[in-house]
Amino acid sequence: MPPITIALIVIVALLAGMGGVLDQFQFHQPLVACSLIGLVSGHLVEGVTLGGMLQMIALGWANVGAAMAPDAALASVASAIIMVLALPSGGTSPTEVDHAITAAIAMAVPLSIAGLFLTMVCRTIAIPIAHIMDAAAVKGNFRMIEIWQVIAILMQGVRIAIPAAALCFIPSAAVEGILRSMPDWLSGGMAVGGGMVAAVGYAMVINMMASKEVWPFFALGFALAAISQLTLIALGVIGVSLALLYLGLKQSAEAGGGSATGDPLGDILNDY
C-alpha cells in the first residue's frame, strides 16, 4: 500500500475515533468511515457498499445507561482496510469483490467488541484528566483546560489510528491468499451470516420503534417494496404522504374531540 494512502487512511481513522466521542460530524458511522477509506484507497464503490451493509448492522447499536454499544469506529475502519487489502490490485471481478466484502463484514463484529475494550481503556484514562482540568479551572487557567481537552479527544482518535496503521502494513498478497484458500462452504456461510447480522441490526431498530401505530405502515412498506415498478423516489413520496395524512388525522381528532386518546389509528386498532 502506498505511503500516501496509508497516511490518508490514518487521518480518516483518527477522525473516526474522535467522532465516536464527539458525535458531531458522524465520522465514526460505518457509511461515512468506509466510504472515506474507499475514496482514499481508490475503491470508492466497494467502500460505499461495505459501509451501507455495516450501517444496517449498527442501526440498532445504542448506549443504554452504563451499557455501552459495540464500537462502530474500529469496526468500520478496520473492516474497510481488510476489504481494501483483500481486493486484487490488478483488477477485480464481482466474485472477488463479494468475497472481500463478506470477509470484512465477518470481521466487523469481533472488531467492534475489541474497539469497545479500547474505548473503555481511554475513558478510564480520561478520569484523571478530568480532575486535572478541574484543578486548572479552579486556578482560572483556561489554556490548560483547552490543552487537556484536546489531549483527551486525540486519545480517542489514536486508539483507532494505531490499529489502522498496523493493518495497513499487512501484505495484501497474504490477505488475498487467505481468501482464495477458503472453501466454498466457509465463504458461503460467511455471506449468509453477514446478511443475517444486518437483518438483526435492522430488527433491533424496529423493536425499539414498535408500536401499534407504526406496524400498519411497516407492513404497507413491505407490500409496496415488492412492486418492482415503484422507484425509491416514488416510495419516498408515498411514505411522506402517508405521514402527512396521519398527522392531519391526528390533529383533526385532537381539535374536534372525536377520539378518546387523540390517536385515531390507535383507536381503530384497539377496536379489534
List the helices and strands and how they pair.
Elements lengths: L2 H20 L7 H12 L2 H15 L13 H15 L7 H46 L2 H27 L3 H10 L2 H26 L5 H11 L6 H25 L7 H8 L1
Helix pairs in contact: 1-2, 1-4, 1-6, 2-3, 2-4, 3-4, 3-5, 3-8, 4-5, 4-6, 4-7, 5-6, 5-8
Q: What does this entry show, briefly?
A:
By secondary structure, this protein is mainly alpha-helical. It is built from eleven helices and no strands.
Number of helices in the DSSP assignment: 11
The biggest sheet amounts to: none
**Mean pLDDT score:** 80
Beta-strand residue percentage:
under 5%
> How far apart are the first and last residues' alpha carbons, in Å?
63 Å
Shape: flat
How many structural domains in the coordinates?
2
Task: Give me the Rg, rounded.
Answer: 23 Å
| Secondary-structure element series | HHHHHHHHHHH
Instruction: Output the structural class.
Output: mainly alpha
How much helix is in the residues? over 70%
Low-pLDDT segments: none
Total strand segments: 0
Features:
single chain; 272 residues; mainly alpha; 2 domains; 11 helices; 79% helix; phosphotransferase system
Give a structural overview.
The chain is an all-alpha fold. It has two domains: 3-198, no CATH class; 215-271, no CATH class. The chain has helices spanning 3-22, 30-41, 44-58, 72-86, 94-139, 142-168, 172-181, 184-209, 215-225, 232-256, 264-271. The chain is flat and about 60 Å long. The chain crosses the membrane at residues 29-54, 66-88, 100-126, 147-173, 185-205, 217-247. This is Phosphotransferase system PTS sorbose-specific IIC subunit. Keywords: Cell membrane, Membrane, Phosphotransferase system, Sugar transport, Transmembrane, Transmembrane helix, Transport.
